């Protein structure tokens, strides 16, 4: 029971941070959730909560969506999600190895993100504005497939997808509307796979219902704090928490 209560608190706190920084909600929640309630509960619940938050953004911003990029992302990442189903089959009975894989991924992303925050403006590429033009390369498509695999395994493909989208979409409102809608489509695929895998038992449905108010409260509090507090400070805090979460998975 204590672990479940802590799980709900994790959902609340990570969605407060998500509301302030605009990212990292699920990947920040996943490591402690895995340790508190396990993969078969944490993954399906966090996946559906991400659908709810994606729909929330979609309803008010659907006119800003870049539908061409959306279609491309959904199709390519879906291939990765289906690949994740096969990969999970290779780790049956060895889930601790998946935890360590996620730990390494989270640590890598936290170090990379913190480094980018600390870089001086003159250190950044001068042609950054030009990166959104041109056709996507084989490498960028490979990045999307990898993002799909990570998303299928841990519902945490966001950081890799962000790496792709920042080069393709420069307008912040279009970026937010498009990436939120991506999760509605892709997380629905993950939901169907979770149902087929038998993860949605009555106790998990009950925990999801209890989780929703914590999600909504976190989103509300985050939306209020974002105008009052330094986003940069919270982004640094987020990367530090990601690093600690990744380490905790490695020593689990």
Task: Give a structural overview.
There is one protein chain. This protein is mainly alpha-helical and 252 residues long. It is built from ten helices and no strands. It has helices spanning 2-21, 25-37, 39-61, 67-90, 95-118, 138-154, 158-168, 172-196, 202-225, 231-250. It is globular.
User: What is the count of distinct domains?
Assistant: 1
Can you give the helix content as a percent range? over 70%
Q: Structural class given helices, strands, pairing? A: mainly alpha
SS element count, helices: 10
Q: What's the oligomerization state?
A: single chain
Please count the beta strands (DSSP E, at least 2 residues each): 0
Low-pLDDT runs of 5+ residues are 126-131
SSE order in H/E notation? Answer: HHHHHHHHHH
Quick structural summary:
With 252 residues, the chain is mainly alpha-helical.
Could you name the key traits of this structure?
single chain, mainly alpha
What secondary-structure arrangement, pairings included, does this model have?
Layout: H1 2-21, H2 25-37, H3 39-61, H4 67-90, H5 95-118, H6 138-154, H7 158-168, H8 172-196, H9 202-225, H10 231-250
